[in-house]
Amino acid sequence: MFWLMKEVNEREFHKVISEIKSGVVFFTFCFLLAPILHSLLSSVSTDSIYAMCFFFLVVYWTCFDYRTHWKGHPRKPGSNTISLSSALLAALCLASRLPGPYHTFALLSTVVTLLALWPTLTRRFRNHGGDRAQICLTILSGSVTILSAWPIVYNKVSFEYKCVFLCVLVMSTVCINFVGPCYLLRMQKFKRTIHGPWDEAVVE
């Protein structure tokens, strides 16, 4: 899929081989170091682990370079280094509470796939598909979020609370992704721009 979404000048054999080598090296070292990474934070309390994970995820969301998703702002090497490192640290914190090293390897591999490769893939879709691709990605992301959050309360609360939780989640997703941006675009016609000339400040 990445091969098909690449530009024509980027579909060179040596570039593809270099990317494959980087992936193989990362996953190999991740698999070999999984036992060490699993026991690295085992002595830290669970409350501290959750607090650290929350802090690193906030850093990831804050430092992520959202401009790199658009064609007018090409991606610069190292623009998302802090955000990606914070996400990996958050995954490492959660990995210390998993049953075994194989689960740690699976979690870290999933995190790298979602946080490092998924933004690049979505940017390719946006650049090639335009507004329709943006709408499809928004609907897909919202649907996945809703389906992922549903099992959290599946066996713990009554059916009424499940329905309320699902309705609130659906409404918030629709408002954030559709209602809010549409309202912002409609308000652009009421925006006023104040032009000069301006009186220069005189220091007495």
UniProtKB/TrEMBL annotation:
Pfam families xref list: GPI2
Any one Gene Ontology cellular component term annotated for this protein: glycosylphosphatidylinositol-N-acetylglucosaminyltransferase (GPI-GnT) complex
Entry keyword Secreted: no
Membrane topology: Multi-pass membrane protein
Pathway membership, UniProt: Glycolipid biosynthesis; glycosylphosphatidylinositol-anchor biosynthesis
Keywords: Glycosyltransferase, GPI-anchor biosynthesis, Membrane, Transferase, Transmembrane, Transmembrane helix
Localization (cell): Membrane
Domain of life, per lineage: Eukaryota
PANTHER family: PHOSPHATIDYLINOSITOL GLYCAN, CLASS C, PHOSPHATIDYLINOSITOL N-ACETYLGLUCOSAMINYLTRANSFERASE SUBUNIT C
Family membership: Belongs to the PIGC family.
Protein name per UniProt: Phosphatidylinositol N-acetylglucosaminyltransferase subunit C
